[in-house]
């Protein structure tokens, strides 16, 4: 099966050896997004809520570049540096993802790139 690399200038450029997303068949594998502002490649100003919204805006841009929407997301993995932010994460995720919700894991990690507080990756299936 051929794979297609998904790229958009509306999301941060990769800061390592990876693509923003890869499409294989009808499945899109989204690389982890951290709260970088695409135009500046700097971490968005503010705290956890602002960072989480930026992450979801970045994911939205990549999903749309692949021809999908949050309704097509089947799985998200969230990495938080502090699980005390779990309720805030849930609330903001609910602004982007609606019932039926995708499958999800949310775990606490000791650190993330650039010292950010949250990173999210996912899987999208088009025409499911």
TrEMBL record:
GO MF term list: deaminase activity
Pfam families: Ribonuc_L-PSP
GO cellular component: cytosol
Domain of life, per lineage: Bacteria
Classification via CDD domains: YjgF_YER057c_UK114_family (cd00448)
The family this protein is said to belong to: Belongs to the RutC family.
Name of the protein described by the UniProt record: RutC family protein in vnfA 5'region
Lineage: Bacteria, Pseudomonadati, Pseudomonadota, Betaproteobacteria, Neisseriales
